[in-house]
Amino acid sequence: MSVASVTTNNDKSTNNANSTNGDTASEAMPTAGQHGIKEHSDGRFGFIPVQTRSDRFKSVNVADFEAVTGRELVWKLSPVAKFTDLTAGTLDGSTYDVSSTDVAGVSVDWVGRDDARIGLAGLPEERASANAWGAFEKALAITVSGEEPKEFTLTRANLGSAPRGAHTIIDAKPFSQAVVILENTGDARLTENVEIILGESANLTVITVQEWDDTAVQLSNHFATIGRDARLKHIVVTLGGSIVRVNPSIHLVGSGSDIEALGLYFADAGQHLEQQVYINHVGPHSRSRVTYKGALQGQGARTVWIGDVLIGNTATGTDSYEQNRNLVLTEGTRADSVPNLEIETGDILGAGHASATGRFDDEQLFYLQSRGISEDEARRLVVRGFLTEIVQKIGSAPLEARLQEAIETELRGTDGE
């Protein structure tokens, strides 16, 4: 399923000077006249659905959102009954233990809720995100400065089984360069917001790695705002956890801004791994490339990928492409893949999207087996080749090697299937 639309009106009734992507702390639902749509004269059709991705309701107050039922657009493919404590319950918003490498040009601090950077990159569009926003006591701020390349790793482990809300800021100062790796392990029941702010000409790679225990639940919303001539590479790697939902929302605000959004996921039996990716082209001459790849094996393995790209009426000269590929390894799995493209200006370089879900290519297996390779090893070679495209783009040799080994461990579960 894919949706492509061309629209000419992007009516916003409010504006927030403290938000570089045009979001407000609490925005009203779209008016009845949005895109020329009006209420029917007999009054029976008063509800006007949101027509433009950027016009979704936003608020930092959890009470502004209705209780989650699973019928909502953002929740309809999620097992909402399994994490009601994160969408409706009281959360522990206290600080927690982290470990990190000591790197010149990168600082880590806990900052108060009054920090001026909070809210700059984006605002909640759903209840779990708003619940986390209202719960955190202090935000974990990672500040990057200096033009020399650097690599920094921050690890969170064993956050516990109690429901928790958290907030993280990654602030890349103008002209800075860095690779920031966020590693997640152990147990957790976590809803969180991560804000990524790129100043002019900053070059930042953010890699979030989910290797949680089998019982862990994580609902994570990443918001990014990218300044003039800045470049963000955002990579989501999900291998562990019971339910893991990482939703990047990227706003290309500055002229010449660039995003490469990559994802790699491997779902085993009973796992639910979800990604809802939103790319918002606001500034002129911006560029985006989205590539997510996943593999599924085992009864009840489920993946969800939704890719929304909005090319706004100010985003002339945009160059955009998104794709999602899923490889099904066994029976009893399900992969949902929904690319959406919305264009509000005709003055672009190009825009496109693609999606595919399929099983092994029997001809590839036959070719490898005809060369003396066993069927199990042939299957592993095919899957490894399929996922390696993402791993090789990470840019951290030690992490790439570790992820290759983790994929090998996952693939051993396909033997005999």
From TrEMBL:
Coiled coil (residue ranges): none
SUPFAM superfamilies in the cross-refs: Stabilizer of iron transporter SufD
Gene Ontology BP annotations: iron-sulfur cluster assembly
Span of domain SUF system FeS cluster assembly SufBD core: 166-386
Region (Disordered): 1-44
InterPro entries: Fe-S_cluster_assembly_SufBD (IPR055346), SUF_FeS_clus_asmbl_SufBD_core (IPR000825), SUF_FeS_clus_asmbl_SufBD_sf (IPR037284), SUF_FeS_clus_asmbl_SufD (IPR011542)
UniProt feature, compositional bias: Polar residues: 1-24
UniProt record similarity statement: Belongs to the iron-sulfur cluster assembly SufBD family.
Protein name: Fe-S cluster assembly protein SufD
